[in-house]
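Format notes (please read before filing issues)

Several people have asked whether sequences and structure tokens are stored in separate files. They are not. Every record keeps both together, in the order shown below: the sequence lines, then the token lines. Line labels are part of the format and must not be stripped during preprocessing.
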Amino acid sequence: ILKKIPKTADRILEQASGTGILTCKIARLFPKCRVIGVELHEEYLNIARNKVRHLELSNVEFIHGRAEDVILKGEFDCIVSDYLAKYVDLDLLVTHAWRMMRKGGLLIMHELTRPTRPLFLMLWNIHFKFLQAYGNWIHPEWNMAFNDVPFLLARTRWVDELTQALRANRFSDIEIENQMFGASVIVSARK
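Then the structure lines:
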């Protein structure tokens, strides 16, 4: 995601910013850029705000809300998200992104996917079995995510749905880049 963000960006929106991991990386990489993170979970926002204070970042703001419901004024050069696509109403998200972006702006979405090649699928299943065992032991609070994500990814067709939503909203230069042996995908498109 960081490599794809336009170097000349002045305003960047991160949808579903979570605990601010990517938000802080963007803000540090683009110190003159205004970075706004939108997150649904207040407890994640508190963690993110503490990170921003600890890192003394003055170019970051967080907003509490659902990514697909928040429509901000002003135009964004880039809108990014990481691990959001499988949970969200993509038609609504893309429609609102179109309204918030400047002409030529870039939308970048990264999300996990289920590999289709048998060897990679077998390794992917082993990986999640390990995460489930590890999560139950070390991070029981993440248990639901470790257990639900493989089933959710087996059902979701987020790449196809996102591509259709992008085309319906007149986005161009749509790129689909498989990552990590097909275990995740970055989709980008230009307004």
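For reference, the curators noted about this record: Strands lie at 11-15, 34-39, 60-64, 76-82, 101-112, 172-179, 184-190. The CA atoms of residues 37 and 62 lie 5 Å apart.
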